[in-house]
Amino acid sequence: MSLLEFARGPALEGALIIFVFGIFWRLIGALTASPPILLAKPRRQDTFIAGMRAILTRSWPLEEFHNIIWFQHYSGYIWHISFFIVLLFFQPHIAFFTSLTGLSWPGLPNNVILVVAAIAVATLIALLVRRLRYRVLRQISNADDYISWVATILPLITGFMAYSHTGGRYETLLALHLLSVELLLLWFPFGKLMHAILAFPARFQIGAAFGRRGVRA
User: Full-prediction pTM beyond 0.85?
Assistant: First the structure.
């Protein structure tokens, strides 16, 4: 079995199984966690509206903090949007998703994808430099932050290498790209990358809890 056959076969199947199982495991853990005992009478009953409002308001920084965290805020949006554009609208990726789900959608030109992917890589590097440069960020960072950074940037870099045939045979580069994606799938449910799924439910929960107390989140 060649490296590419391994990456396309058992490695991909195993990574997908662990990815799906891990996400369900985290979600079940969050949903079955013991809720706090609420003894006070709720001041408001429209907690759903309060939760939805919190999703919107907490997706944008307060004006008082904007001048302090504007770089982190905008770079975060640029990074997430560019990553998902590359993931969902690169035509080989669409073909892969079609083989898994049977669904298909229009893609973007390769040149557009390359530019967007370059923006994603540059943004990730800028965020890492910022994390290493500022003392407070270094102190609150742990291994999860750096592992998540590596697991996220590797598929982009190996994707560039495979597309441009840089650094070796195409089959080897494609295998390395697939293995880097599988590393991302394996790490996703168990690290901070899981915030991609938990962020909005967490914001909703905070807003609903504040709304029950009559406080706007």
Answer: no
Looking at the structure, give the CATH architecture of the domain made up of residues 3-30+45-212. Up-down Bundle (1.20)
67: amino acid identity, one letter? N
Buried b / exposed e over 48-80, threshold 16 CB at 10 Å, is eebbbbbbeebeeeeeeeeeeeeeeeebeebbe
CA separation for the pair 189, 79 (Å, rounded) = 19
| Interhelix angle 195-212/10-31, nearest 10 degrees | 10
| 148 touches 187 (CB < 8 A) | yes
Smallest CA-to-CA distance from 187 within 18, 11, 17, 29 is with 18
For the chain, the domains span 3-30+45-212
**H or E segment at 187?**
helix 170-187
Q: What is the mean pLDDT of each run of 10 residues along the chain (217 residues)?
A: 87 93 88 69 73 75 67 83 93 90 90 94 93 88 93 94 83 92 94 86 79 69
